[in-house]
Amino acid sequence: MQISQIEATDLFLEPAAAPRQVVRVTVHGPASGVRVRIEGPTVRTPEPAVTAGLAAGEQCVVEVGVLVGAPATEGSVHRITAIAETADGRVTADGEMRAAATGWTMWMISHFHYDPVWWNTQRGFTELWQQLPDVPGADRLRPPFVRTAFDLVRAHLDAARQDDDYRFVLAEIDYLKPYWDVFVDDRADLRRMLREGRVELVGGMYNEPNTNLTHPESTIRNAVYGVGYQRDVLGGDPQSAWMLDVFGHDPAFPGLMADAGLTSSSWARGPFHHVGAKRHTGDITRMQFPSEFEWVSPTGRGVLTAYMANHYVAGWDVERKDTLDEAMAEAYAQYRELRKVAATRNVMLPVGHDHNIPSRWCTEIHREWAKRYVWPRFTMGLPRDFFAAVRAELSGRGAAPSPQTRDMNPVYTGKDVSYIDTKQAQRAIETTVLDAERLGTLAALLGTAYPAEALDKAWRLLAYGAHHDAVTGTESDQVYLDLLAGWREAHDLASAARRDAVDALAARADTSGAGRALLAVNPLSWARGGIARVHLSYPAPGPHGVAVRDDEGELPAVADGVTRHDDGSIAAVSLSVPARDIPALGYRVWHVVDSPTLAGWTGEDGRTSIRNEIFEVTADPARGGALSRIVDRRTGRDLLRPGGLGGEITVQDEYPGHPYWGEGPWHLLPKGPGRGLAETAAEVRAEHSAAGSRLVSVATLGELRITREAVLWAGADRIDFRTHVDGSIGQDRLLRVRFDLDLPGTRPVSEVGFAAIGRAFGFPESDAAEDLWTLDNPAHTWAGLSSTARISLHGPDGSVRRHAIGVAELIADDDARDLLVALARQGVTATRTPAVGPRYGALDADSNLPDVRIVTGAGNPFAEAVLASAGDAYRAVLAATGRVFVPGERPVVEPGADLRGVRDLPVLIAVDPDALAADLADATVDVHQPASLAGLGDPLTDYSVALVNHGTPGFVSRQDGTLFLSLMRACTGWPSGIWIDGPQRATPDGAGFALQHWSHTFRYSLLAGAGDWRRAGFVRAGQELNHPVRADEVTAGPGALPGRASLGSVSPDSVVLTALKPRGNPLAAGLAGDAEGITVRLYESHGSATAARIRLHGGLHEPVRTNVLEEDGSEPVRADAGDVTVELSPADVVTVAARSGAAAQLPGAPATEPVQPVFTRYWLHNKGPAPLGNLPVSVYVHPTAAVLPAPVRVTVGSATEAAAGVVDLDVPAGLRVTPAGPLRYDLKPGEYRHFDLQVTAADAAAGQYFLAARIRDRAGQLLEDAVALTVGPPAADPAGLDVLLEPGEVTVAPGTAAALTLRLRNHAASAVRGEAELLSPYGTWGAPDDDLLVSPRTREFALPAGATGTLGFTVTAPAGARPGGRWWALARVTSFGRVLYTATVSLGTTGSR
Amino acid sequence: MELTHKEIFERYVFAGAVSRNPEAVAAMFTEDGVIEAPLVPDGHPLRRLVGHDAIRAGVGAYHRQLAEPGPVDAGRSAYVLHDTADPDVFIAEIDVAFHGGGPAMSLVQIFRVRDGRIAKLRDYFAEPAGGAGDTVA
User: Fold this and answer.
1) Residue B29 structural domain
2) C-beta atoms of A1352 and B132 within 8 A
3) B134/A1352 Cβ within 8 A
4) Which of A350, A267, A257, A363 lies closest to A302, judged by CA?
5) I want to staple A382 with a disulfide (CB 3.0 to 4.6 A). Which of A140, A200, A598, A979 is the partner?
6) pTM above 0.80?
7) What is the total count of domains within chain B?
8) Complex ipTM, two decimals?
9) Are A168 and A189 in contact (CB under 8 A)?
């Protein structure tokens, strides 16, 4: 007998009143009847452990429960002797043990992560996965533990029904709504389990959106729909934002969620690279803050957050074990790891994976573990149990969670560029929806009905598209097309609502006067100008020229394109019109009058320089036509470095998948710097007009033709760039535009949700095989070089030298929340760390890099280390002034940087954190020290440059000032090319859609000005460019309102209106009814407290401060004479609700779907969210397919409102249904009724038939579900339809149109109905800057058995369309749960420029 | 300001055929204004409409008709206005083309005007066959 090992654990045996710590003793045979105990000066064994006999060579581990004599503080070391005795004798071994603590609990939280779309389609993930054909790699994609959403919800409910200990969470509306509506019999159990606390609805969001790629209003509406459904329809109490897989987060997110009433969040990606510090470095303790912390927004609001430090799949490793003992060992191993970073004695173990069935082991562990050990507890739980335990322990200690304002980005940089067209679409639609909401509200104040249903659906489509495998561009080809259909629908809904609001305003305004009337509309809360694009057409005889006038005279409009009738008069013309002084939230009437001439652009070959009052720009034909000079004429500053270029286009080759991580679209994978257009010569042409001047250059690079325009509009303080990309980018390439800026000392700053923050310099030209972390980041509307906050070093000689800071590590031994918030309000995000502990700033783990360390408090050991290295001169400054700035010793940051060394970064040491926080109010920290102590880095240039984007969010800046904006990429990495339903479709050249082989136009603008980004006016410019002035042709006539009016405004300049809408969101709660009152949401953009004044037509009365859900308004706000004054703290986001003093709006008929009947299993048609009206009552047929004779059940269910009527059955000839009916229903809110029917083939030939059940909803829509019924042998082609889109190629001249024809043939044995949607890419939807309009978006069809038919569509090019563009279109035909996609046809505009 | 015949006609075309706005069409007529379409069959929504409400409803119904030929392609359309001996009456001779490739249509409209608004419009048009070529909608 021998003892080989003594190992103390943190396990404890009974009794609970005096728990015994487990010491594991390894005993080797031969021995029989071994009794093992542990003794020591402070340790005793109340009851020795006994083990059976051991043969020679056999060993076993004996768990001995010991008591450690008080005081046994956690971690104290005790000398021990292990004694193993048998009847024959004893052996001993000496060792030591550390006393462990009791009180630990691991909460096992069973979940399934759910992607509504990704490589698989909505129909697949929701209902059909197991029935669909396998795709390449199916073994990996469909492991045995995954199921459809319907199977998963049922399986988790069943697990809870069968096992009283089972607890689980449900989250996304994407499956909750369909499940609740279809599986009505499960409603009672789900409600019961909610009441009993056995299931928690988490998320409080529609889905898991990638909020760093979308408008912060989209984030808010995502919560409106999540909370609205989970709380008001299902009866849950959502408290935790559950963002498991999201690829980084918008800094506004925690503050907005706090404002939405959520109290916690949990997720797995953000502060560290994509799978976390543990999985990247092997060392979980590289985390610089506990896994439970308060995540705080720049507003200063935050939520308790649990970072899933070993990923959201941590607990699924438990599931992969074969026996309970192995599973418990794995659970203990997870616990041992996760407890190292826990903030309290509570550990959350997420037990789940992607789309997984219930864990088989977690309840077994829950029961068996408790039999063996009293501590730690391994218990099934819900997130709210875990968070309550964390809060209770913290509050018991009188502690608060560690506050962190860290930027949870970047994660998966490829998401900022892949499928760039969908990000452009999302941005354009978000602004159109917001504009439609604002203008619709103004129109409602004038008595017009508000388009509630249309905008409700547009927001739900945007919420759906904001999912982290949708707008991120990480989806398969088929899913891309499905998402595109949703964006197009949202675009059309928003555009129509906006247009109706404009007509309503025009009807009340005096638009009379000579010529055609245009209403130029400004959706922003301040008066402004801008360029409006107008398209007009005239029957013959048209005018020979036109001029545009406002009430002060002619505007210098310029024609971008014109077509003429045979008589020479204008048939169609596209104008760019410089607007002047369009009133805040208002309009100005313009008139288009006949004129003898038409002003256009006049070319000047050989001229390579243009100027306006603000800028002069020069292009270099020898260097591809890029700009070689950009001069700010106000100051004489050349923005470019000597020899540098502006607007240079680079193409970088990329890996199809990462050499190590193996994944594609979500990583940026450059192979190095790539090539630029500057290597080639180009034509450059200057063009002039009364409206402004532009430089146009055309260059080619391989099969790419790139046309660049740099436009200087007269008087404009920005340069507008339009980069047109035609031809093929090839594959696995990344296209970026680059500006070699000359702004020493500045740092990257980017707008994010309702704020601007500093970001790290990056490495855009890395080889991703060596350095994956390029530090590209997503910006909201602008990003550039400037300073968020500054340290001003004042020398005794009066000199001032400024140092920009952007991202901080704040080293403080108190929680330093006030200072953290003061920094974040100025855009400096920070990681709060203790003096001794892991440091922030190494790219092997951290997702980004700090550029400064700020140390507070006297005698901080880290400060001591800095001062010891820096020398007494700095110590003397600190002693004399209470502050000192110690320059860093690593001025150049390399790829893969590790900046954790004491002197790697500049360090600001401040004795008084409160004084430092107060000093930050002006974004400048004043430090008094000699210039000789400032270090060698460049002082801050007091000038800022930014690029405003229109949905190209990805940017990065090299440390030398080279600013890159990512434009597009062609990525072949998986799941690019995956196709599920029917033949795989491609662009007309045979390429996958992810390769983006069609014409793209990228618009971006360069802003510049003295001072920081606040003074340079970037916030307003970003708003103005993203919400352009639009001028629509309206009916001319008299009106009570003047021809130029402001219907509202917000002041001062630093406050931005972000939402103006009717108060409340009844449709999100499944309710009809109009909202009452008005909601106004504002944010403070400059980091300074201010009082904002809100003025609105008709006045605002009884204003209250409310939350982002527009609920719970109780805090009154000052109002006088109908104007509202609300106090905003720095960086605040404030929602105010008030009663309008204007006349009540007229009720309008709710909008209905253009295709009727509406198919209620909308997910089977890959439609995204539910139809218009959100189906408060619906009808379903079960099953969805059967062979006759068959029982069929029809269910009518109400989610939220009473409904009565008769189910209308559409029974194909030859089939018989019994009982015959009528099938009457009369339901109270929440009730449902089943009708059980028998269907037989009375007199039907073999074939496939569709039997439909229909009801009519309150808006007058026909809702329909259908069952496919087979008579005789199964149909060879279950789709039942042939579809063909013709002709294969359509080319239209600018100003003309052409037709597309969709041919359909029904070879089912009964009639089919459905929808034919024409899908075409962003840029072909008829927006003012688009080159094509493909319309209509959708058409309904009905075809009798065996019939053929056609549907017509039109492709129209405005007069100003760019010649030589190439796009594509295809039709998605959906009918009774089937989806078909035609091959693409090629669309183009004739000619070449 | 008194509108010219050309302005009245162009605004009528914009309100109806181009922007398809029944409200705006109705607003161009006098309170007792009349639309008559003598060549269309009984039951057609534009057969005879009297007063703003009827015009708004009838024009709206016409725009919702599936066989309605679709938006006018103004750039391929043409018209000639003919003044008459009565200064309040003018005639429009129209050749209209539609987006979507449907057949062109020729028609005549006779306008009677009172105080700058349309008192009576006799619209001599016949429905083209087949709309935009659909056979299944």
Assistant:
1) 5-124
2) yes
3) yes
4) A257
5) A200
6) yes
7) 1
8) 0.80
9) no
